[in-house]
Specification:
Layout lengths: L2 H27 L3 H26 L3 H26 L5
Helix pairs in contact: 1-2, 2-3
């Protein structure tokens, strides 16, 4: 692996760490439930991106499958939480 790619991956993971801390603050202090749901959705998205960058670093395909599962569960849970906020129930 080239040194440029190594430093780019380290910089990317650092940026994701800073962004995750800011999103966690919004998740804990969010004034409305919609803000908290959006923050949780962003955390799923950032976790997926961290797994993808880690897969690039380790040059392994297994990480991409894990990222796909994170994206799938993140979408389903976000849809369920949005429906719960709108109607007060998830299953009709």
């Amino acid at each position: 692996m080239s040194p440029l790619l190594f430093y780019a991956i380290a910089f990317t993971l650092g940026c994701y760490a800073v962004a995750s801390v800011m999103v966690l603050v919004r998740l804990l202090r969010g004034p409305r439930a919609q803000d908290r749901v959006f923050a949780l959705d962003l955390l799923y998205f950032q976790a997926m991106l961290v797994v993808l960058v880690t897969g690039i670093f380790h040059q392994s395909d297994r990480y991409f499958e894990v990222a796909l599962l994170i994206a799938l569960f993140g979408f389903v849970s976000s849809a369920g939480m949005a429906k719960f906020i709108l109607r007060g129930e998830v299953i009709e």
